[in-house]
Amino acid sequence: MNTRRERVPESLLNLAIVLILAGPIWAESRTTDFKDGGSVALIEKAYAEGRLSLGDKVFHELQAAMAPQDLPTSLRANVPALIKCGSPYVDAAISNWKILSTDQQTLAAQYLARPSLDSVYIPPSQAFAIHYSLAGNDAVPPEDLNMNNLPDYVERIGEYVDSVYFFYHGILGYLPHPRDNDSLYDIYLLKIGAYGVTVPETPADSAWDDYSSYIQIHCTFANFPPNDDPEGDVIGAQKVTCAHEYYHATQMAYNTHMEAWWRESAAVYFEEVSFPEVNDNYGYLPSFFNYPDTFLTSTGYHMYGSFIWPEFLAAKYGLNMLRTITEEERYYLVLPAIDSALAPLDETVKRIFPEFTVWNYFTGTRAGGESYDSAIYYPLAPLDRTLVAPFGAVAPVYPPDGLATNYIVAYPESGPNGLLKINFDGSNTVEWGFSYVTFKQGVTDIHAGCTVDGQGRTSCGIYDIALYDSVLFVPAVISQWLNNNQYAFSTVINPFGDADGNGSLNILDVSYIINYLYHFGAAPKYNIYMGDANCNGVINILDVSYIINYLYRSGPTPCLYRP
User: 204, 210 in Cβ contact below 8 A?
Assistant: First the structure.
C-alpha cells in the first residue's frame, strides 16, 4: 500500500461557511482522538512491530470490542476506545479460532456466549427481548422520567429497535432475522468497548448462509463521540446503534459471512436512512474522502466512511436496490452481487464507478449539480495534482488502488488555441475509466467518458479549450485488485482544422475532410467541429478551400466555431 500523505486542514473560511449554513456539528478532532488513541490502534501497532502474533492480535481486538476491562494494561488506551462495531472482530476471532491459544479460546468463548442479566423488557412490537441490569458494571442509567418503573434508556432502545424492525421488514421488505429457540430477538445492554456488536450463533434452515444471532449494545454511551441529534449525544448513539446492529441481524438472513467492508458500509448508511437527524456517520467521512486513491474495499475506519458507496447506489437507483443487492449476496460475493442487481438496468460496477468518483468531487464548497443531497456537509477530496494545460507526461503522486481514483485540475494557459488532446496510458494489469469535467463561468459540464481500451489507454479531446476556466480530470481504476497503479498522462493542443487528429494542420486534413464528405469516411477526430475550418457551423467543401488557402496562399488561420 502506498504511504499516505498528511492532509491540509480545511480553511477557516470553509469552516465558517459550513457553520453559517447550519451544517452538522460533529467534531472531527475529537473523533480523530478516539481513532488514533483507541485500544485497537495500540494493538495494531504492537502487531506491526512484531510484539504480538496474529492470534494475539485477533484475540485482543475481540477483547477491545467486547471486554475492554480484560485487556492487558499495555494495550489499554488513554482515551475510551472508539469501536464503531465489534462484529468484524467477532468474525476475525471465529475465522482464526485455531490459531488462538487454549486460554484465549476459553475466554473468547465466554465473550461470545450470551450474558446473564437481571432484567428484561419486551417492547411493543413483541419482536425483541431487551436484557439489562440495574446494578453493577453493566447497569443502565436509572433515569425514569415517566415513572413507569422502566429505565428510560431501556425504553428508548425498545422504541428505536422497533422502529428499524418495521422499517426494514414492513416497508423495505427484507427477510426477517433467523430465529433462535423462541420468537424474540435478544438484545443485551452491556459495558462493551464498542457502540454495538452482532454475534452470529447457529445456521438457520435456508439453503444459503443464514444464521441466527444476538446483539450487544453499550449500556450507557457515556464519553462517546458527539453527534447532531437534537435530543442529545446519548440518544443519537442509541438510535444509530439500533439501526446499525439490527441491519447486521437482517443481513444474516441472507449471508452471515459477507465481506466486512460492504456489511459495515451498508449498515452505516442505514443509520442515516433510519435516523437522518443524528449524523454520527459524518465523523467517518474523512477516512474515505481524504484518501480517494485507496481501495473502496478497504476495512478499518475507511469502510465506515465508505457508506457513501451504498448512498450513491440508493441515490441513483432507489433504496430498494440495496435490498436487491443483499438478496443477490445469498449466491455471490459483493461486487458480483451488485452487478447482478444492476443487470436489468444494463449497468455494471465498472460502468458506474467513474460516475461515483465524479460525484465524490462535488462536496463541501464544491457541491452543486448531480451529487448527494447532503454533499455540502461532506469533506473535500484532495487533488493529486494541479497543472497548467497543455502539460507533458506526468505520473500520479499517489497512484490509485483498485476501485479508487485521482483528481487532477488543469488551468488552460493563454496562447495558441485549439482542441486539448488528452493522452492517457494506464497500467495494463488493471482496468481503467476516465472522466473529465469542464468549468466555464459557473457552468459545469461532466463528460463520463473517454473510452479506455483493454491496454489502459485513451485519447480524447476538449474542443476550444481556451473557453474554459479549468478542467478536472478523473482517472479511476474500475477493477477491484492491485494497489499503487501507475499511469502516464499528458495533453497537447491540436490546431483547429486538424481533422485527422495527428497534431498538425496539413494536406492530409484536406484529404480527410473530403473522404468524410464524399466517401463515407470517418468524422473528424475528437470533435466534429475540428473539420469546420471557416467556423460557419457546417462542414462542407468550403472548409476544404479554406484550409488550402491557408496552407498555400497565405490565407487566414482556420478560425473556430463557438456554439
Answer: yes
CATH (domain of 447): 2.60.120.1050
Domain range for 323: 24-347
The reply to whether 212 falls in a domain is yes
Q: Domain boundary at 290, 320, 347, which?
A: 347
Residue 362 contacts residue 289 (beta carbons within 8 Å): no
pTM of the model: 0.91
DSSP of 456-500, one letter per residue? Answer: SEEEEEETTGGG-SEEEEEEEE-SS--SS--EEEEEEEEPTT-TT
Asked if residue 422 belongs to a domain, the reply is: yes
257 & 318 share domain? yes
- pLDDT by residue for the chain (563 residues), tens digit each? 333 333 333 333 333 333 323 344 333 433 444 455 589 999 999 999 999 999 999 999 999 999 999 999 999 987 655 799 999 999 999 999 999 999 999 999 999 999 999 999 999 999 999 999 999 999 999 999 999 999 999 999 999 999 999 999 999 999 999 988 899 999 999 999 999 999 999 999 999 999 999 999 999 999 899 999 999 999 999 999 999 999 999 999 999 999 999 999 999 999 999 999 999 999 999 999 999 999 999 999 999 999 999 999 999 999 999 999 999 999 999 999 999 999 999 999 999 999 999 999 999 999 987 789 999 999 999 999 999 999 999 999 999 999 999 999 999 998 778 999 999 999 999 999 999 999 999 899 999 778 999 999 999 999 999 999 999 999 999 999 999 999 999 999 999 999 999 999 999 999 999 999 999 999 999 999 999 998 888 999 999 999 999 999 999 989 866 54
Q: How far apart are CA 33 and CA 104, in angstroms?
A: 29
In a domain, 297, yes or no: yes
Residue 153 in any domain: the answer is yes
Q: Report the domain count for the chain.
A: 3
Q: Are strands 408-412 and 385-389 parallel, antiparallel or unpaired?
A: parallel
Contact 439, 469 (CB under 8 A): yes
